[in-house]
Amino acid sequence: MTAKTVTLCRGERIVAAVPEHCHGPGWSNSIVWVYIASQDGRLRTECLQPCEQTHEMQTLFDAGAAMCRALVDAVSHMNQWVTAGFHTENGEDMANTMANTIATWTLELNCECPGCGEDVDLLDHADFWHGRNLAVGESSTERSRDVEVVCPACGHEFAVDCRY
Ligand SMILES: [Zn+2]
Questions:
Q1: Which of 131, 123, 118, 119 is nearest to 150 (CA)?
Q2: How far is ligand 1, taken at its centre, from the CA of residue 120, in Å?
């Protein structure tokens, strides 16, 4: 038996070695997952087959696998793919506790600056909203006409009519 040598790149370190009994129809295996973290927080794994494990791993395997299994079971979690309105056995409405998908607004107010000719997003100017009485998406209203703006590229001051 030859223990496999795990190669680490610069800045990487081994953060966990997790023994796992896995099995399916007609097969079973006892592997050790080695979790390797890089300095920027990425994780990769290497799989050690039984013949690649050290004597210490095999001695600790059963106890370690049982402890990992128990710890996995102890992680409080919920499955996000449970459909909305699903009721648990004790009648709780799962829909209220599910984490929703985050939707991100993207907002731009684009025009061509008459000063420098650049296509600019007027919202890029840090003070655009400062003291301004204008709703997002407001169009063809008194407030969205003759709006004084500053070009974020060249600082030119001019007036625009906002359209959605
Ligand atoms: Zn400009």
A1: 123
A2: 7
